[in-house]
Here is the input.
Amino acid sequence: MKILVTTNAVPFVRGGAEELAEHLVLHLNARKGIQAELLRIPFRWDPAERLVDEIVLNRSLKLYNVDRVIGMKFPAYLIPHDNKTLWLMHQYRQAYDLYREGLTNIEMGPGGERLIAAIRAADNACFANAKQIFTISPVVKDRLERFNQTSAEVLHHPLNDPERFGGGSYEGYIFAGGRVGSGKRQHLLVEAMQYVRADLRLIVAGPLESPAYGEELMALAQRLEVADKVEFRFGFRPRDEIVGLVNGALACAAAPIDEDSISYVAMEAFAAGKCVVTTADAGGLLEIVENGETGFVTAASAEAIGCALEMLGADRSRAVKLGAAARRAWDRLDISWASRIDRLLA
Here is the structure.
């Protein structure tokens, strides 16, 4: 069987979505009788009016010599095929929940509403023709049902290299890894450090969504006089570096808005026996981060996050205890690539 995995490609932007698509192809090719390839379609969403061109482009593509398609991200999942399975990472959220939050590049008003209607119509036609639909989390599943009246099955994505996150020492820093951007709200973590009196540092590492946000974070640290307690490592980081930072952290932190999945940040932390500090509006992370059990779930405010970080810094034995519980919670989930491939090929 020849399987084509389709997703989008934003030049020089790389994160968990790209890792997931590549590992899916790798594990598909490990199955006897399967040939799999990854098709990444260049994607640009700015200006917003270009989204119509993106829809037309992807819906116009013709695939040959392909037995099955597994679509993962907008607009690449719109590519037509008679035997298509969807494993949705997310839709174009700026036309859905993020539009309501005002975190969108689509203008408010009649023009924006028409563009949103076009995006949703394309999505609905695609979903209606799919043989089966999976989502990477209940958050994505619920969004699909709420906005598109479409049912799906949750199929959590695995951690790609769990054997590398064996844990280690509990050093005096909080690690915030992953893509760095306004939707991930690293600014809240930087602001939180002004409420931390314990001997504790924050390390923010990952690729920037925009240089402007990186400059904003550095200026914020200077303005709040916490620059000596915050270290920025912007850009794509080597895997060895990320593994070392997770394994050596006292705890990990993430404060995204309604994250689509458990997230690699939380999965890596839990696998390494590190608790996670997050917020009550973080979405998919709340599947495993339980307040006072496997980490802290706070209000989405700098002061609340800072209070949680202060507690961990002042009582490191508590961080170790929460981290051990996080590791047990991760083991109970038992998310493997073998079981994911079985469901996708069923």
Notes: The chain has two domains: 2-155, 163-333. The first helix runs from residue 16 to 29. The longest strand covers residues 2-9. Residues 137 and 244 are 27 Å apart (CA to CA).
